[in-house]
Design a protein that fits this description.
Cofactor: Zn(2+)
Pfam families: Meth_synt_1 (PF08267), Meth_synt_2 (PF01717)
CATH class of the largest domain: Alpha Beta
Keywords: Amino-acid biosynthesis, Metal-binding, Methionine biosynthesis, Methyltransferase, Repeat, Transferase, Zinc
Bound molecules: glutamine, zinc ion
Catalytic activity: 5-methyltetrahydropteroyltri-L-glutamate + L-homocysteine = tetrahydropteroyltri-L-glutamate + L-methionine
Structural class: alpha/beta
Largest sheet: 7 strands, parallel
Strand content: 5-15%
Shape: globular
Number of strands: 22
CATH architecture of the largest domain: Alpha-Beta Barrel
Strand order of the largest sheet: 1-5-7-8-9-10-11
CATH topology of the largest domain: TIM Barrel
EC number: 2.1.1.14
Oligomer: single chain
Helix content: 40-55%
Length: 760
């Protein structure tokens, strides 16, 4: 059968790998025990695929931490500071740091929430081949009962993507090493070719779905010409995902590479057509990624079948394989443990294991392979659930739809210049007002209280008492050290998206829908399945209470519509601009209620605003348009007297500064502590007019900044922006820090401002 998945999740259906890793790191088990868990998981994951089909089964999609890191080990790209460590220590030290060496950098994998370990390359980097992991995984996989020898597919990250995603430690160009690295890939392919009569190797080159595609495309032909000649019994799949790869398709068809893998879910129809047009006259086999590897909805098999038939007009059946749009790493493992979800919603979902069976059904139907009774039944159920979902009253809320369709106000009535005058006067703050980003330390006791309440072990009254006690402490502390604008500390929130999602209709929550974010760290994104609204206030009681405990101004704290969307699994039956609009209206209602309750400042966090940017610049204008409109719509609830703050993480704003300005918040706080003043200069150079709170210290580290250090940091800020435009705050929420760190740090921050103010 010509079925495949680009890759399978590795964390384990009950996060077995996470648990094993963390216990190994804590010294509670030895390496052998960790290896045993890994072996069992790899075996189980292969069996899941074998159960579903007799197509291609992925090998080397497993990793203890990350596949880019594994690739660095594979080619001996080990930074000097880890050189002396033993192999096992070295691997985890590169990922997590050791007592003598800082960890390698980690960054987002394209536009997903998965993070990879960034390779470090210098002009002197030399490569050496260390293929033991792949060889042993292949051999272990072979122990399974295969129907023929060509059932395995070995996954590798490609040389161009690997180097393009590397960072240079000496300003030399990592891609200057391409020839040398390709020589090692040739050696590797030769070695792998000895494993079987015929060996299928998937080489991932997702860099070709980004804006760098045009610049890098000329490298494809020479590199893949060499690789396709490395061994005569090796079949190479040039794999791409997340977007179209038109430039790469154009190059690959010039080579003898056996197959190309394309994303048929996230590329636009127009680009897909272009790709197919190029493939039409070629002989390249097509790995057709029609099953969504990034979202959790059941595929409508009939629709997918129609899509495959349309593709057949360009590429004949003989040249088609059927599979996922990308690795299933980006979706949760299985629905098996979801016994709390409503049966109706559950019947619409498909996690990694369930997607395997979708691929199987689709392959049977498309290639007209007779299906067993079990398969037929699954197909019928699929068609039924596609219908019930489309017409379910759970999804459709007439009120929400007509409200969104009949809006007549989209932004705040007053201009910023007029609002800020009113606010400065009414809020009465002078120069360099001090504040924080919202959360205070999430202590173990706090988590316990929330858990106990959730499980029904304590009642509402006890819960409220404990949360209020925490708010009291936060407020008292902030009052004592003399901060200007206070926060309640967010003790009632487990997560900035989940907390709001849980209170909105249209959202559901899985019990076990974990997705790997980095290393052993997993996230469980909420499921936005229907029209979204906010039946009742979500934060007002807490904020009102906090305000009642102080004479200072209490800032209300909300998560913005764009972040709510970007950190959820969202419905695929409605365009994103409409989904985000509904979220914006829900936040609008909350801002109105906070305002009516006498709250003078509301912060609308957009931590994931930058994260949602498309991979191809051609799609950026559309994203910016709906993201900015959604934010403006949400905050249009605020009168001129209410000050709107926003907060964004990450410091790479240079290219989007005008967009941020267009969001029209009165004050934005941003992460600058690690990037120095460069970013601020950008604010200045574009004549950014709203107020800015550049983080004055890095909350990601336990270090306590001294008064002196903070004074010089603030002075540096003042060299770039006028004192009337600046707020002083840490660079993100404090929830991951300890009180022992937070108390002195904030105290020093306020003291530093006091010193500067006396000079000014
Ligand atoms: N208000 C949130 C907090 O302080 C913001 C978190 C974030 O930006 N990631 O925790
Ligand atoms: Zn932040």
């Amino acid at each position: 059968m010509k079925s495949y998945v680009t890759g399978f999740p590795r964390i384990g259906e009950q996060r077995e790998l996470k648990k094993a890793l963390e216990s190994y790191w804590a010294g509670k088990c030895d390496y052998d025990a960790l290896e045993r868990v890994a072996a069992e998981l790899k075996d189980r994951h292969i069996k899941y695929q074998l159960d579903a089909w007799s197509g291609l089964i992925s090998v080397n999609d497993f990793s203890y931490y990350d596949l880019m890191l594994d690739t660095s080990i594979l080619f001996g790209v080990i930074p000097q500071r880890f050189a002396a460590l033993s192999a096992h220590e070295q691997y985890f030290a590169m990922a997590r740091g050791s007592k003598d060496a800082v960890a390698m950098e980690m960054t987002k994998w394209f536009n997903t929430n998965y993070h990879y370990i960034v390779p470090e390359i210098s002009a002197y980097t030399e490569f050496s081949l260390n293929p033991s992991k792949i060889l042993s995984e292949y051999k272990a996989a072979k122990n399974n009962d295969f129907k023929d020898s060509c059932a395995l597919k070995i996954n590798l990250i490609g040389p161009i993507t690997y180097l393009a995603l590397s960072k240079s430690s000496d300003k030399s160009d990592p891609l200057a090493h391409l020839d040398a690295l390709v020589a090692k890939y040739e050696e590797l392919l030769k070695l792998l070719s000895e494993l079987d009569n015929e060996v299928v190797i998937q080489i991932d080159e997702p860099i070709f779905v980004t804006d760098r595609a045009a610049e890098l495309a000329p490298k494809i032909e020479p590199v893949y010409h060499r690789l396709s000649k490395a061994a005569s019994n090796v079949k190479i799949i040039f794999m791409t995902y997340f977007e179209h790869a038109t430039e790469a398709v154009r190059e690959i068809v010039k080579t003898d590479v056996w197959a190309i893998g394309l994303d048929f879910v996230y590329a636009s129809e127009e680009n897909i057509k272009k790709e197919l047009q190029i493939l039409k006259d070629a002989k390249t086999v097509l790995f057709t990624g029609v099953i969504d590897g990034r979202n959790i909805w059941k595929s409508d098999i009939d629709k997918k079948l129609a899509q495959l038939k349309a593709i057949e007009a360009y590429v004949p059946k003989e040249r088609i394989y059927v599979g996922t749009s990308c690795s299933l790493l980006h979706v949760p493992f299985t629905l098996k443990y979801e016994d709390k979800l409503s049966t109706e919603i559950k019947s619409w979902l498909s996690f990694a294991v369930e997607k395997l069976s979708e691929i199987s059904i689709l392959t049977h139907l498309f290639f007209e392979i007779p299906m067993c009774e079990h398969g037929m039944k699954a197909y019928e159920e699929n068609q039924k659930s596609a219908k019930t979902r489309a017409s379910s009253p759970l999804i459709h809320d007439e009120r929400v739809q007509s409200r969104a369709a009949n809006l007549n106000k989209f932004e705040r009535a007053d201009r910023y210049e007029d609002r800020i005058k009113v606010q400065k006067k009414e809020l009465g703050y002078g120069i360099l007002p001090t504040t924080t980003i919202g959360s205070f330390p999430q202590t173990a006791e706090l988590r316990q209280v929330r858990n106990a309440y959730k499980k029904g072990l304590i009642g509402r009254e006890a819960y409220e008492r404990d949360i209020k006690a925490y708010i009291d402490d936060c407020v008292k502390f902030q009052d004592e050290i003399g901060l200007d604008v206070l926060v309640h500390g967010e003790p009632e929130r487990n997560d900035m998206v989940e907390y709001f999602g849980e209170q909105m209709s249209g959202y559901a929550f899985s019990a076990n829908g974990w997705v790997q974010s980095y290393g052993s760290r997993c996230v469980k994104p909420p499921l936005l399945f229907g029209d979204v609204s906010r039946p009742r206030p979500m934060t007002v009681e807490w904020i009102k209470y906090a305000q009642s405990r102080t004479k200072k101004i209490m800032k209300g704290m909300l998560t913005g519509p764009v972040t709510m969307m970007n950190w959820s699994f969202v419905r695929d039956d409605k365009p994103r601009d409409q989904i985000v609009k509904q979220l914006a209206l829900a936040i609008f209602d909350e801002i109105s209620d906070l305002q009516d309750a006498g709250i003078k400042i509301v912060q609308v966090d957009e931590a994931a605003f930058k994260e949602g940017y498309p991979l191809r610049s051609e799609n950026i204008p559309a994203y910016e348009k709906f993201a900015v409109s959604a934010f403006k719509l949400a905050v249009s609830a605020a009168s001129a007297h209410t000050q709107i703050h926003t907060h964004m993480c990450y410091s790479e704003f240079n290219d989007i500064i005008k967009t941020i300005e267009a969001m029209d918040a009165d004050v934005i706080s941003i992460e600058t502590a690690r990037s120095g003043n460069e970013l601020l200069r950008v604010f200045k150079s574009v004549g950014y007019k709203q107020e800015v709170g550049p983080g004055v210290y890095d909350i990601h580290s336990p270090r306590i900044p001294s008064v002196q250090e903070l004074v010089s940091q603030i002075r540096a800020l003042l060299e770039v922006l006028p004192k009337e435009q600046l707020w002083i705050n840490p660079d993100c929420g404090l929830k991951t820090r300890k009180w022992e760190e937070v108390r002195p740090s904030l105290k020093n921050m306020v003291e530093a401002v006091r010193i500067i103010r006396t000079e000014a």
